[in-house]
Amino acid sequence: MTDQKTQPKYFDSGAFLHRSDAVVYNGVAYVSGVKSSNKNGSVTEQASEILAEIDRRLADIGTDKTRLLSATIWMHDVIRDVNELNLVWNKWLAPDRRPARSCVQSALQGNSLVEIAVIVAA
């Protein structure tokens, strides 16, 4: 017998054939990496768009950023841009709700400057 709570639930915009936007399993939501569609934007502009999309995905799941557990942030140039990112990130976070976070430098698809994935209690 399969318990409904232990079955993964997939949230999919239909935009990609190779992944879901988020998966909820056993009370935890895993949100896929989000990149900005504004490839010419600054780190501030890209991060702002990304965080708005994360808010939207979390609302679709029925949770929000106050329940963040972990975030992984990939940046094209972390040394140069992390302070700019942190200004946007710190304004976005809910008060006293700082998740565990990793921020690493990476070659990103489509000339993106930032990509962010989060894990959230659902």
UniProtKB/TrEMBL annotation:
CDD domains: YjgF_YER057c_UK114_like_2 (cd06150). Pfam families: Ribonuc_L-PSP. This is RidA family protein. Transmembrane segments: none annotated. InterPro entries: RutC-like_sf (IPR035959), YjgF/YER057c/UK114 (IPR006175), YoaB-like (IPR035709). It comes from the Bacteria. PANTHER family: PTHR47328, RUTC FAMILY PROTEIN YOAB.
